[in-house]
């Protein structure tokens, strides 16, 4: 796995990164979005979903926890998950997230709530807020993403 950092000066840069990611996603992928409140996880997700064809703004799945998007709404089925409100790993297990990987991709905010259960082929994107308000995204790129990440 390689760690790579990208500085994103504003919200439009975060959305653009999500759009570029969308060009390379495959069924069975997991994209784990880490970072504090307001870091830009949902913004990146919105850019990805928009590039996959979603019309209108994607709501944050904070309250629904699991927000599925299916064809024809998007060109690849996506399950957008926000685990922030979960208290323990057992609650995450009840969501049976692995089932969504059979025919789509998982986009997970707050993946730390899964404990050590995150899939090893997951693309882990950690977003840090810099002093000037810009963001630094650090990508933990697994082998499954090595070739694709170099094109993003």
TrEMBL record:
Compartment annotation? Cytoplasm
- TM annotation in the entry: none
Record's InterPro entries?
P-loop_NTPase (IPR027417), T6A_TsaE (IPR003442)
Asked if the Swiss-Prot or TrEMBL record annotates the protein with the keyword Metal-binding, the reply is yes
Question: Entry's Gene3D superfamilies?
Answer: P-loop containing nucleotide triphosphate hydrolases
Major location (coarse): cytoplasm
Coiled coil segments of this chain: none
* Superkingdom of this protein's organism: Bacteria
UniProt keyword list: ATP-binding, Cytoplasm, Magnesium, Metal-binding, Nucleotide-binding, tRNA processing
Q: Does the keyword Mitochondrion apply?
A: no
| Family recorded in the similarity comment | Belongs to the TsaE family.
Q: What is this protein called?
A: tRNA threonylcarbamoyladenosine biosynthesis protein TsaE
Organism annotation: Sphingobium soli
Origin organism lineage: Bacteria, Pseudomonadati, Pseudomonadota, Alphaproteobacteria, Sphingomonadales
Q: Which gene encodes it?
A: tsaE
């Amino acid at each position: 796995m390689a760690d790579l950092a990208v500085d994103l000066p504003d919200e439009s840069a975060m959305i653009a990164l999500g759009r570029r990611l969308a060009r390379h996603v495959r069924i069975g992928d997991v994209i784990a979005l880490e970072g504090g409140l307001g870091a830009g996880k949902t913004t990146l997700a919105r850019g990805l979903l928009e590039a996959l064809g979603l019309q209108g703004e994607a709501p944050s799945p904070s309250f629904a926890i699991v927000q599925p998007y299916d064809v024809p709404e998007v060109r690849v089925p996506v399950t957008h998950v926000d685990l922030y409100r979960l208290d323990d790993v057992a609650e995450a297990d009840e969501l049976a997230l692995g089932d969504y990987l059979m025919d789509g991709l998982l986009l997970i905010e707050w993946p730390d709530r899964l404990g050590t259960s995150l899939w090893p082929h997951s693309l882990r994107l950690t977003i840090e807020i810099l002093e000037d308000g810009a963001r630094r995204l650090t990508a933990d790129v697994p082998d499954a993403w090595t070739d694709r990440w170099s094109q993003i």
